[in-house]
Amino acid sequence: MNFSAGDIVSIRNRLWRVNSSEENILEATRIDSGENETHRFYLPFETVTAAHIDPPSNTRFGDAATNRLLIQAFRYSMVHGSAPLMSLQKSCVIPTNYQLVPVVMGLNMSTRVRMLIADDVGLGKTIEAGLLASELMSRNLASRILIICPRNLREQWQEALQYFFQIHADIISSVHLRSLERRLPPGANPWEHYKCLITSIDYIKSERVSRLALSVPWDLVIVDEAHLGAKPHQSSEKQSVSMERYNLVREVAKNANHLLFLTATPHNGYTDTYASLLDMLDCGIVSGPVSDPVINREIALHHVCQRRRKDVDDWFAQSDEANPFPQRVQKEVLVDLAYIEERETIHHLEEYGSSLIDLAREDDRSNVRTMAQWVVMHLHKRALSSPAALRKSLQNRLKRIEEKLSDKDESVSQGLTPDQAKATALDEETRGEISDEEASERTDTVVYGSLSALENERVTVEDLYTLAKKVTPAKDSKLRELTRAGGPLDSAMKGHNGPKKVIIFTRYKDTLDYLEKEIPKRMKGRLTSEQIVVIYGDMNEGQRKDQLERFAELKAGVLIATDCISEGINLQHMANQVIHYELPWNPNRLEQRNGRIDRYGQKAPVVHIRTLVMADTLDGTILRVLVEKAEKIRTDYGFAPPFFGDDANVVSLIQEMGIRVDLPAAQKTLFDSFEEEMTTPELPEHNPFDAETIERIRQESFYGQTEIDLSQVRARLIETEAAIGTKNDFEEFVRNGLSRFRCEIGQNHDRQETIHIALSDMLKVPGVEDIIAKATFDEQIALQETGIEQLNVGHPVVRRLIEQVKDSVFDPTSESYGRSCIITTPDISRVTALYHFLVRFTVGTQRPEVIEEIVPVACDLIDRSFFPEDQVKELMYVKPVGTQRKPQELIRHLSMALSDELYRQAFEDTVAARIATIRTERAALKEELTASGVAGEWLTGIDSVSCASHDLISLRLLEPARGAGVSR
């Protein structure tokens, strides 16, 4: 016997819905269990018969409340049941149109999706990748998934996949491995055993770990912040660069069927580095030698989705949707060194730096001279950050000098590589081996020279430390500017810019400690220590989460953080103001920080950015100019320029821009030393700010090329959301369902009006605490307050509740039977039957799809006429009253209503109308996409819809109350 997609069959005494049937293999999903498990059956070994769900009992009826619960459960289980994109059928995301573009592009690639999603910071690349992953899983094109990301983004990826897409993913790392191994069969490879894993790029790159990970044939690999895995640019063949990450990503890319690269900064100004990302997509995009690649734009257009914030703003301006992005008001606050103690400290620090440079010049080893340059620049930056940071660096350095003098040790003391020291000085990434805090401390203690030179340096450092101690908080110009009446922090705490919440970013943990201690002292009566929350790199994930929850709960407060949360962390629901306590020397880092609040989901119409810049210092004379130029390019072109790429770039760029003449003598000495170490005196290969570089990035990028009209999809989602009921209907369903299954629900009596839930055994879900301490039905509260769970159709407990309701009320012998009920109401004048059918439609795509909907039909039991659609909806909300009818009479009406002769014509006409509507919607979608240049195989047959099977799920018999005279 042949079976088609959508048929109901019986296999092994269970009911299954056929998904596909090819030769001797039948794939089906079980429908008489809440687990929705899918299996593949080898037909020669199975007994398969046609089946159906039995109709409601004709001898027993349940109560109206249980029946309503059942109908709601079916509706909520298929929120986007007939949406043309299958990912929407299984997610609780209501994306905006532009976020659906990568899904459509991916579907055009058929069985091998290879894409670079390069949308700007804050546009929702995680959601876009999750939608595409869900789409591939729904179409059985992916089951084994690997996500590679920076270490600090692992938990966020795990939460997003579970929350939005119900995809359970495990984190694998040196810390998590032991827990994962406890659940493994003996001898099993965890990379193979777990279907969906999240790992950090620096964990998986080690040879031992990568060997195990690469032994698995991954269906889908997602690499977040993919620019970290691009091939580093080499100015010459002799230049040494770290290739570990690139080699790892390249091998993973070869091993994956589907591949998604996510990054907001794919182009660093070097075509070879940028092209290495496109080349790993393995789609024929790149040709020619590695050092001089050629990018085939015609091919790349089908594999790169890249939108600037400007593109999306323009798109919203022309659409009917409200723009969900805020405006940005960004200003620099120049701070003069008002106290002689500050100026003397900076002056003596510059002289000390010159002496270190002179000492290094006497050394024959180039790495000593290079390290000296980065150490001096690092110390200068620490002084510009805060007097506390400088004092700590001087203490660290003094301690190391004394140790070397005590040991009579004249060797070079170096606890980090020149590349790591450079990254520390220039606010670049230290590539995961050590934290920013540790790199900073190690840079403090890079010491060299003879014993006599060390003795002289000890005296100099002691004198400098004595000077630095005189810069008290009362004589710290920058701290005073931050905390003065009417200053940046005072204005934020008075609510001048919106909510009284502000995030202060600082580069250094020592400055963070200093601000945490001193701000409450200087803002007495305006800000207390209890209103200050701190997060820094040495905190574990649990501690960071606790601190974020603390900040979220404050009505007015300050979060002081280092760059450990400058990437990937969503803070737009907690604040709309950022203060940079010092100027990051890398504009990319500055933009990443700003992107924590200036992103999709920010409810404030404007975000406010303030950057404190010390005047007449290295900050004010050089980097302020660079940052201003970077901001102008971002405004004019819609993207930030690439920043310093190598040692020579720093020096040559400053020289070319003509700023060097403004430097104090001691600072000129520093940059003279850089020039001496350059092997070639020419300018760098590119100036990241010149027109040629910017134009090259613009020409090699793909901004705004994905103009795909998805208005039909959006309209359908809005219509579906409205059809399943109001927010109050959903809350009623969850509360009634939880109570029915003996869960305990109580109010927390907090300002967010949250509830707590103690789950019964029937509704306990792996990965969810047995007691949910804080829950809400309000999306805005859940988004804006960490630690509060939103109860929506995607929540694991709600999903379990839906399936338990569907299971428990079906059995006619069960006390909670609810497939039929009888309601007496004054709102009708004739006996009426209200049916709800589960209808399965098949779509004639290359691989047939099955979509399901609940279709209501209503018939007059006396004259057998049926009701129009608008009146059917009204019948769901009739007012019930008590009845005096005898049970025998009600049972007779129930049996009459269950005769298919009564409802057959009405059902067939309703389904035919529904099919026509779906076909029209999908034909319009097909036409829109084709007009937008989309012509993938997945569109073939998308508007070919037919009814495969149906079952009567529910019957409501509406009896008129005595004396009812209201017409139907």
Task: Provide a brief overview of the structure.
Helices cover 42% and strands 16% of the residues.
Low-confidence stretches: 644-649, 678-683
CATH superfamily of the largest domain: Tandem AAA-ATPase domain
What CATH calls the topology of the largest domain is Rossmann fold
In one word, what is the shape?
elongated
The number of distinct β-strands equals 28
Number of helices: 35
The fraction of residues assigned to DSSP E strands is 15-25%
CATH class category of the largest domain:
Alpha Beta
Main pleated-sheet profile: 7 strands, parallel
Report the end-to-end length measured between terminal Cα atoms.
Answer: 46 Å
CATH architecture of the largest domain: 3-Layer(aba) Sandwich
Rounded to an integer in angstroms, the radius of gyration calculated over CA atoms is: 33 Å
Structural class: alpha/beta
Count the domains.
5
Strand order of the largest sheet: 8-9-7-10-11-6-14
Q: Could you estimate the helical fraction of the residues in percent?
A: 40-55%
In round numbers, the mean pLDDT is 84
Biased composition (Basic and acidic residues): 428-443
Organism: Methanogenium organophilum
Keywords: ATP-binding, Helicase, Hydrolase, Nucleotide-binding
Region (Disordered): 405-443
